């Protein structure tokens, strides 16, 4: 049996919502579906020969159908007044909608992370959590979608808010879950942009002072001009570093990150202000949120060192893999790469017309993460921005993205919870395939932004 294609599932869903006079709710579900397709949680194109990968085609279909009906209250699936569409008669789709609903219940009462584990660590890796990621990236951002979801008398099929006051309260709980749970999960599953969108919406609801200030500061004409100049500088620097390293016999990936997601900037600004607060006298007399509100306008957004970033991943020197070298040989190879990078950084004035200085941090964490970070900053302020250059081996890159130092482990969630998810979801984490990586290596190499 071949699963239904997305091209037929979508119009069937629309017809169902239209028939029961609920098209605004369909539009919300379709927005979530579009986001899932955009980030490739769902394969949006026609699967021309699903028989070659029937399991994958069914997974794609189940995620799509769950997305189209995720607002259904699972407790009302049996014995309701409506004739349900065929998709909701599928036991796998019903199971995912039930899981989605139970996750929603946990989020909205502020459940501890341990209470999520039985739903996620059941050996079946529920697909509903992937729908959650797309949902959190498009909906939890204030009043935009509320009106159609408020009904004092409820609805015989869908989850509804009973009042505007209840909706406002539950949106805050949703935002909390987005910040603490779903942004880290999105990062874990290889969707850094999705994580940024979830954080952005969470900050819009629960940290509006930071949200408004960061959006205003990032959009300021002066900052935009400096970002553009820094991008041009880093673009040229990346070319020179790659040419220099290849000329010395290195096999290397040089990956540019020209824009840090607004949501991740917000999270970083909050963390910086929290660090200032903990070291201040005000920590004895006012709350953290009060301190942030009083200081956010004065925060210099250009003080962040990674609004623009560059990563250099060394794979081989000659025919030898760096990570398989003896330690002394590896250190020598990395020292050569280090010196070639610094020679290029020392020549930044010839590119930018402005003298640059840089600081070097060598990271060797208990988690296993090793890298050298070069934080470069212009001597004459007000022109280009600071930017970060990372040097690491392929193994160190893997540890940063997938292993014990992975970004998802300190983006805001709990490491033990993340480890459970990682074990359970290995078979369904959606990564870009080899063909895409060859076409654009930046797709599969998101910068580790801390």
Describe this protein's structure.
- The structure is a single chain.
- The chain has 17 helices and six strands.
- It has 450 residues and is an alpha+beta fold.
- The protein folds into two domains: 6-206, Hypothetical protein af1432 (Orthogonal Bundle); 211-405, Beta Polymerase, domain 2 (2-Layer Sandwich), CATH 3.30.460.
- Mean pLDDT is 83; it is low at 402-413 and 427-450.
CATH topology of the largest domain: Hypothetical protein af1432
Please report the distance between the alpha carbons of the first and last residues.
Answer: 47 Å
Low-confidence stretches: 402-413, 427-450
- The total number of structural domains is 2
The biggest beta sheet, please? 6 strands, mixed
Q: Could you tell me the strand content as a percent range? A: 5-15%
Individual helix count: 17
Given this structure, which CATH class of the largest domain is correct? Mainly Alpha
CATH architecture of the largest domain: Orthogonal Bundle
**Average pLDDT over all residues:** 83
- Secondary structure tally: strands: 6
Overall helicity: 40-55%
Report the structural category: alpha+beta
Our Rg estimate from Cα atoms comes to 24 Å
Shape: globular
SSE sequence, one letter per element: HHHHHHHHHHEHHEEHHEEEHHH
Quick tags:
Hypothetical protein af1432; disordered C terminus; Beta Polymerase, domain 2; 2 domains; alpha+beta; 51% helix; 450 residues; 6-stranded mixed sheet; 17 helices
